[in-house]
Amino acid sequence: MPQIPARQSDLTTYARIRNAALEGFAARGVASTSIRDVAAAAGVSPGLVQHHFGTKARLREAVDEYILDVMAEFSRELAERSEGDEAWPGLGDATTAWVRDNALALRYLARAMIDGDPAAARGFDALVGIARTSWLAPLDRAGALRPEADRDWAAIHAAVFNLASVLLEPAISRQLPEPFYTPAQLDRWNVATVDLYRNGLARKEDA
């Protein structure tokens, strides 16, 4: 799985600890990841983790806040790609790049929802909201969507497809000639997903 796209040496101690927690939570779940685990992965002492975050609950909150911030940035970028003649491929390119760079965040979110964690609902709500406001709404304003298309389910499907693709990556990779995260397979996923949405949602003249 791709790692968090930043060099560890460039990060503050706070960010290194938070990112180590994200990796642990994504791989093993929150309950199975201890402060000692996070400290070892970040290359610091457990006491330094507690100095910055106090408790594992606060560390978890910091991870959640980081993920919501990343989603907000993605929402703004997606809105910019939802205009013009190249809206559909532009949206696909932006989403594929974001999933590639933030696979750990999505896996963590998916695991937390499976574990029944109420806090994970905020992340899912954010994904659905991004699909509604930054993807579907601009296309709708441009008249690019079929009037009868179900906007609510289109937004939900977008969130579910992205989460499921990351969570089920090992199984998906077994069905492909190369692992899912290789450039060629990500490109295939991008093209196939854009075709799926475009054929299902776009007006015939835009499909």
UniProtKB/TrEMBL annotation:
Give every HTH tetR-type domain span. Answer: 11-71
Give any Pfam family that matches.
TetR_N
Q: Which residues bind DNA?
A: 34-53
User: Which controlled-vocabulary keywords does the entry list?
Assistant: DNA-binding
User: Does the keyword section mention DNA-binding?
Assistant: yes
Question: Per its UniProt record, what PANTHER family does this chain match?
Answer: HTH-TYPE TRANSCRIPTIONAL DUAL REGULATOR CECR (PTHR30055:SF146), HTH-TYPE TRANSCRIPTIONAL REGULATOR RUTR (PTHR30055)
> What's the name of the protein?
TetR family transcriptional regulator
According to its UniProt entry, this protein's organism is Amycolatopsis heterodermiae
Its lineage opens with: Bacteria, Bacillati, Actinomycetota, Actinomycetes, Pseudonocardiales
